[in-house]
Specification:
Strand order of the largest sheet: 3-2-1-4-5-6-11
CATH superfamily of one domain: NAD(P)-binding Rossmann-like Domain
Low-confidence stretches: 74-79
Structural class: alpha/beta
CATH architecture of one domain: 3-Layer(aba) Sandwich
Oligomer: single chain
Order of helices and strands: EHEEHEHEHEEHEEEHEEHEHHHH
Strand content: 15-25%
Largest sheet: 7 strands, parallel
Distance between the termini: 42 Å
Shape: globular
Mean pLDDT: 87
Radius of gyration: 19 Å
Helix content: 40-55%
Length: about 300
């Protein structure tokens, strides 16, 4: 049996469907199980990593557990920030997983810069990664940059900006490079990890095949949406305080947008392509990923600029 924490989230909900569709028995953990829309083969269990009483029982009998819980709130009711919230959740999870006899945890975090310090958001992801690998040494941490999918917060911000702005302002972050990855490839990596023995105890970077600047990402999304959007180059630092504007335009919470924008200070590129060799996957192109994501989006909601 496999447990999925964060089962109501974007990747978590897709992963539950993917695993159940393969005939794997899945236990979906959520603070509010009533929000779950579960396929056959998946079972809901109420669990809150910040109130860990009963968490070990929720994990009992699970050989593998997926850790897909992230906090983005800038502050919590008890005065803590998202980093302290994530730290407490990871501590509780490690203790419960060990008590329940979980053999392996699969974690999805973020690519980190090779030059310069990580943002607060990425530093918190790194801390959680270390806690999971130290506490459960046979675990695997996967790191990804922008996930291209209709439910991805990063992708939704880009689409909304393209849709609502006639000219796209770009400051220094426009030249930063990354390798966006199709959500279907992320799900492939996650689903294959428990069966990939050589991935145990490792941190692996997962990425799409194309290295793109953020300016190129925005331009390609606009092109694939069928609209022309000229860019306006601004001096570095010109968009200080821009997170509030982006949050308003994209309809995403400021508590989510601000740490994501802070992560654009440096290139976010994989250290190597070891994951491709270990898993034998052939990631989809950026254009294929965007086309699939936009089609998914429009099945639920019409895009004004498409």
């Amino acid at each position: 049996m496999e447990a999925v924490t964060g089962a109501t989230g974007y990747i978590g909900s897709l992963l539950v469907k993917r695993l159940a569709g393969e005939g794997r028995v899945v236990r979906a953990l959520a603070r509010d199980p009533s929000r779950l829309d579960l396929p056959a083969g998946a079972h809901a269990v109420e669990a809150d990593l910040l109130r860990p009483r009963g968490l070990a029982a929720a994990l009992e009998g699970c050989r593998v557990a997926y850790y897909l819980v992230h906090s983005m709130e800038s502050a919590t009711a008890d005065g803590g920030d998202f980093a302290s919230r994530d730290r407490r959740a990871a501590e509780a999870f490690v203790a419960a997983a060990n008590a329940a006899g979980v053999e392996r945890v699969v974690y999805l975090g973020g690519l980190t810069p090779r030059a310069g310090p990580p943002s607060r958001h990425l530093a918190s992801r790194l801390e959680v990664e270390r806690m999971l690998l130290d506490g459960l040494p046979r675990s695997t941490a996967l790191r990804a940059s922008i996930v291209v999918g209709a439910g991805s917060s990063s992708f939704r911000i880009i689409v909304r900006l393209v849709e609502r702005l006639r000219v796209l302002p770009l400051a220094g972050f426009g030249a930063r490079r990354t390798r966006p990855i199709d959500e279907r490839d992320v799900l492939d990596y996650l689903a294959l990890t428990p069966r990939t023995i050589a991935a145990a105890g490792r941190t692996l970077d997962v990425a799409g095949p194309q290295e793109l600047t953020f300016a190129e990402i925005i331009a390609r999304v606009a092109e694939l949406m069928g609209v022309g959007r000229p860019t306006l180059r601004l001096p570095s630092g010109a968009m200080q305080g821009g997170a509030a504007v982006v949050a308003r335009l994209s309809g995403q919470p400021l508590e989510l947008v601000r740490p994501l924008m802070e992560s654009l200070e440096h290139d976010l590129l994989p250290r190597n392509d070891d994951a491709l060799r270990l898993y034998g996957l052939r990631p989809r192109s950026f254009d294929r990923a965007v086309d699939h994501a936009l089609a998914d989006w429009e099945r639920a909601e019409r895009l004004g600029a498409r």
